[in-house]
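Pilot study result, target chain (176 residues):
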Amino acid sequence: RPKWPVALTDHVPSKTTGTSSAAPQTAAPKPTVASRASGTQPWLHDEMSKGEADALMSEHGLDDGRYFVRTRGDNNPGEYVMCVVYRGKSTHHLITQADGLFLINKAPVGNCTSLDELVDHLKNVRPKWPVALTDYVPNPAAGATATPATAPPDPDPEPQAAPEPEAEPEPEAEPE
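Predicted structure:
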């Protein structure tokens, strides 16, 4: 009998036959945040502190609805934190999973079974979620660039000259 723990490169004999049930396999490499962010999740960032997240958000502007998602790190696999601007301030919301659904702050949000679905779902105001997600903060490690959902209105538009009034058409002469 092998002594536990057994190295992952060693085979473990089957209890019934005494031979291993399968050849040793190496685990597929875990996709990195940068590789996922360059694809369908450009808003996904690596683990960072709350202070670092606040600073990153401030660099990109504190416009309501601006957001990004960061991982919680190896000690909390499958958990994320959504950083979103609400009323001009960065807010942080824990994203976890239960029974195959994603939760924000321990409450289910729709029937979202993936992080992508959750982000898409929150692009509209929802009960207990008062701000629609708009522009994301791109992950620079993935080479992502922000693409706004809609162009925000210019807060200080350049003054423009008033258009010239159109000349009114001459009334047609009445037949005599």
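One observation from the pilot: DSSP finds three helices and six strands in the chain. A full batch analysis is planned for the follow-on phase.
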